[in-house]
């Protein structure tokens, strides 16, 4: 169906100049006291404006490390990351990250101050405009009533919403999300996915989304980059723009999920074995 | 029947996935395979119970919240509990003093209170307190500023980190009082040598706590801060200090206690030589003249100021910051 490509990925074949973010042969390493570990090896892909690009892979494929590198927190040891043609070499407010952890919101600031803080600290806006914009985006994520609450009084889903509102208020060139819903319960996660898609319909931001859940990748993304583990290398790029929350459990959806699963986990096995799999074998992190 | 079926489907699949054979053999004694045990279990139980639904009426006849009784509500007040403890201690003191019946060794609570009252009224005690507090605050603030500079250096450079750890391990165990003779030699008799020992007593304890607090700030919060382009001093001011505030406050409290202790001790030992005497000097003088009740009054003032600062200044500071932010219970 799709022959495994040597080295890296399909997106390279259709290289265009319109790409907003291009990751070019990027290898990343991190240091432990004893050794240097290679997290990703020569990964390349491109993200176009208004893409909902998903990095999907099992744990240990370096997807979060890759996202941090794009955020500018880690320097690649090989290759280059370019945002609108400019090389990324430090963190900046044009790439806002939404983390998985709830402590990404400074607890000493109220919800509104949290959103404003990002705008003021980066020098994007003056106080008056910052407040206006903060309230606007808080309203968008449905938290206008909690503008003066402190983060510790909010539920996990609400904290995630604040982080998203904060990121959107910055109006970054690209929004980086590092498993933002992974720490939420299943019902809240599903609702957040739905809201994220609605927000995207409205604002049309560019999104780079990291997840380890095949289902979430299919629902949230329009393109999915599959990474193999240890070290992370590009395994495939798959379209998923046709799926949303309503296609959960549909035939096409399941078929693609199965295909992704086999791409990720069945490496090096005979095609025979792949065909025998039935749906219960698929690991869906839900 | 059901059990047999499950086993049949299950075992070949495990083999086909190329998993460990030992897992497959475990599967036959179930437990090792998620979902397997449950399915067997469910099929045995499910027919015995029937499904049901309940139509919920609005709950009106039960009050949704009720007030705690007055006694419990009062007991929730921290100041009330603490005052009770103080009252109890005063009672014990009064009792022991009356039993002892020797004003020279142990004046009673009431005698001390009246000495304290007289001292306050004549303004003598208040003057001494003022002298002590001014010196104390100078030393304390200078210590805080230095600790802040040193820890900022420590979080930003490797060399600063080494400097801080070496200096703290060298000077933290050194009693401030032991430095006083040296200070007198360097700075002469007067405030400056007192301030020097005060800075010494505040600086290391606070710097250690502050640095520990900075190290404890979560990686996510740091990255979030850097994401907005915060760097250097702005990063320390807007991210590290508020995030490390619980430890910084603890350090400030410890520093305050150390400073107070050092000051009184320094005045007790060398107070006579330093121009105008403070509270320690007051205690020292009255001991020489055997006004034991005034000695107790002086000590009581030290304690009272300690209690006031702890309960008014630091507690309010905690209430409007770390407690409000949910960083500390």
From TrEMBL, chain A:
User: Locate the ABC transporter domain: which residues?
Assistant: 21-254
Q: Which CDD domains match?
A: ABC_NrtD_SsuB_transporters (cd03293)
SMART domains from the UniProt entry = AAA
Record keywords: ATP-binding, Nucleotide-binding, Transport
Q: A single Gene Ontology molecular function, please?
A: ATP binding
Q: Which Pfam families match?
A: ABC_tran
Q: Which family does it belong to?
A: Belongs to the ABC transporter superfamily.
The name this protein goes by in its record: ABC transporter ATP-binding protein
Organism of provenance = Pseudomonas zanjanensis
């Amino acid at each position: 169906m799709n022959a495994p490509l040597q080295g890296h990925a399909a997106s390279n074949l259709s290289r265009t100049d319109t790409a907003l973010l291009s990751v070019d042969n990027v290898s990343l390493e991190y240091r432990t006291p004893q050794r240097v570990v290679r997290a990703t090896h020569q990964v390349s892909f491109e993200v176009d404006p208004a893409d909902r690009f998903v990095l999907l892979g099992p744990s240990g494929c370096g997807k979060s490390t890759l996202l941090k590198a794009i955020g500018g927190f880690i320097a690649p040891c090989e290759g280059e990351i370019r945002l609108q043609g400019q090389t990324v070499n430090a963190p900046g407010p044009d790439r806002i990250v939404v983390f998985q952890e709830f402590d990404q919101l400074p607890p000493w600031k109220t919800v509104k101050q949290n959103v404003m803080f990002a705008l003021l600290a980066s020098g994007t806006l003056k106080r008056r405009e910052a407040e206006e914009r903060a309230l606007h985006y808080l309203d968008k994520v449905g938290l206008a009533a909690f503008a003066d609450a402190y983060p510790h009084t909010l539920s996990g889903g609400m904290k995630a919403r604040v982080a998203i509102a904060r990121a959107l208020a910055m109006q970054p060139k690209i929004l980086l999300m590092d498993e933002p819903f992974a720490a939420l319960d299943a019902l809240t996660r599903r609702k957040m996915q739905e809201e994220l898609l609605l927000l995207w319909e409205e604002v049309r931001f560019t999104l780079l989304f990291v997840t380890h859940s095949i289902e979430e990748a299919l629902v949230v993304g329009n393109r999915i980059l599959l990474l193999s583990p240890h070290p992370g290398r590009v395994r495939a790029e798959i379209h998923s723009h046709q799926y949303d929350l309503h296609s959960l459990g549909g035939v096409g959806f399941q078929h693609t999920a199965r295909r992704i699963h086999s791409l990720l986990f069945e490496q090096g096995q005979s095609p025979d074995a792949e065909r025998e799999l039935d749906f219960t074998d698929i690991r869906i992190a839900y | 029947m059901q059990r047999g079926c499950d086993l049949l489907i299950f075992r070949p699949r495990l083999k086909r996935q190329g998993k460990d054979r030992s897992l497959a053999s475990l599967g036959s004694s179930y437990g090792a395979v998620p979902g397997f045990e449950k399915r067997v279990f469910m099929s045995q139980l499910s027919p015995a119970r029937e499904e049901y639904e309940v139509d919920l009426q609005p709950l009106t006849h039960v009050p949704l919240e009720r007030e705690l009784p007055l006694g419990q509500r009062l007991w929730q007040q921290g100041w009330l509990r603490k005052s009770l403890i103080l009252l109890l201690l005063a009672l014990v003191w009064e009792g022991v003093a009356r039993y002892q019946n020797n004003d020279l060794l142990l004046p009673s609570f009431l005698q001390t209170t009246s000495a304290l009252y007289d001292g306050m009224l004549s303004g003598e005690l208040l003057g001494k307190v003022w002298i002590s507090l001014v010196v104390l605050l100078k030393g304390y603030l200078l210590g805080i500023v230095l600790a802040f500079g040193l820890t900022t250096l420590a979080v930003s450079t490797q060399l600063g980190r080494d400097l801080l750890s070496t200096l703290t391990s060298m000077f933290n165990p050194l009693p401030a009082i032991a430095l006083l003779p040296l200070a007198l030699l360097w700075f002469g008799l007067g405030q400056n040598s007192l301030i020097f020992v005060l800075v010494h007593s505040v600086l290391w304890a606070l710097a250690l706590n502050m640095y520990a607090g900075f190290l404890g700030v979560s990686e996510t919060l740091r990255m979030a801060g850097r994401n907005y382009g915060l760097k250097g001093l702005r990063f320390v001011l807007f991210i590290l200090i508020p995030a490390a505030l619980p430890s910084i406050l603890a350090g400030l409290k410890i520093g305050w206690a150390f400073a107070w202790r050092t000051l009184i001790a320094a005045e007790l030992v060398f107070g006579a030589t330093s121009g105008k005497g403070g509270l320690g000097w007051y205690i020292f003088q009255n001991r020489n003249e055997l006004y034991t009740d005034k000695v107790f009054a002086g000590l009581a003032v030290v304690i009272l100021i300690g209690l006031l600062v702890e309960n008014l200044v630091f507690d309010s500071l905690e209430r409007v910051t770390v407690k409000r932010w949910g960083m500390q219970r």
